[in-house]
Amino acid sequence: MNWKKALDSMQPYKPGRSIDEAKRIYGLDDVVKLASNENPYGCAPSVRDYLTSAAIQHELYPDGYAGGLRKKLAEKHGVDETSLLFGNGSDEIIMIISRALLGKGVNTVMATPTFPQYAHNARIEGAEIREVPLKDGYHDLEGFLGAIDGETAVAWLCNPNNPTGNLIPSDTLKGFLEQVSENILVVLDEAYFEYITGSEHIDSISWLEKFPNVIILRTFSKAYGLAAFRVGYAIGDPEVISNLNKVRSPFNNNSLGLAVAEKALEDEAFIEHCRNLNHEQRLRFTQYASDNKLHLFDSETNFVLIAVPGDADDASEKLLQQGFIIRSGNALGTPGYIRVTIGSEEQTSNFFKAFDTLLQSEGSAV
Ligand SMILES: *Cc1c(COP(=O)(O)O)cnc(C)c1O
Fold this sequence. Notes:
Blueprint: H1 19-26, E1 32-33, H2 45-53, H3 67-77, E2 84-88, H4 90-101, E3 107-112, H5 117-125, E4 128-133, H6 141-147, E5 152-158, H7 170-179, E6 185-189, E7 214-219, E8 231-236, H8 238-247, H9 255-264, H10 268-291, E9 303-307, H11 312-321, E10 324-325, E11 327-328, E12 337-341, H12 345-361
Parallel strand pairs: 1-10, 3-4, 3-5, 5-6, 6-7
Antiparallel strand pairs: 2-8, 7-8, 9-12, 11-12
Helix pairs in contact: 2-9, 3-9, 4-5, 4-8
This protein binds pyridoxal-5'-phosphate.
């Protein structure tokens, strides 16, 4: 068959070990998954209650317009309903953007390392990928401006960045938006927006009117604790949204996901609660890293990228043997580091105990 050439060098997404798998292989009773930045506190209790009683008309197609959720989000963000696009997770929106704008003869600019789906989709579409190395975990926006040219279609800013956790300072970001050509779609992937605590951060939604070439991605998968339901959305200029909508498949979000996301918006106090708990545990990671002289990137998210003694795959294996599933930096473009989702207070304490054993065995390795 005549597959796209790009597929030759590509691999399907490889999920990490599941909790059940880890229990079986390592003979453990308790395994904590701190690998995918899910919310350790789950979703709002009201959403949980709703789910046990939810009566979805399963014989009907979902609302392809996502009317209920759209109305609530438009109100919440103070934008027009036509400024919103829904995806089966923001992953699907990344695919929609790529499909609509990328192809042979155009290029796309992104940081490295960053969220791998930008390059993955660009490769499938046959676009040239231009990667700008991070500086100490931060986006190098001067470097972006240097890499951008007349053939650039999309610039991806993962903000805060996965896997480092760094947030672009608002004034730096604004300066970039003022300089970049309005012909380029600038994607602000804000999957971790709800976890930001930095007081000087400006909500980028307020810039959309001034910069109609910006599109913001948000998701219900992380802080809202609804990763299983696959609901993400984009906020942008109605003209941009309208073009992307042509690429979207008609019923890309299922009815239960839409209903549950809508329900979750009623409990903003839960999100604030999670943000505060996450912040407390994040500070403990910063302290732990500094006490043990380990480098840790500045994070405004619910994960940290922390240096490990020795090889990151070895460290991951040792942590897994003690019941913690985390991500080795070797697979994320950050060798020597692991990415750890910030869990609850108890999970964090136990994680530090497991990490202590890595430090103790340091130097005594064969
Ligand atoms: C998790 C994540 C996503 C994907 O979120 P979904 O809405 O679950 O598809 C997108 N971007 C970044 C940076 C992420 O970390």
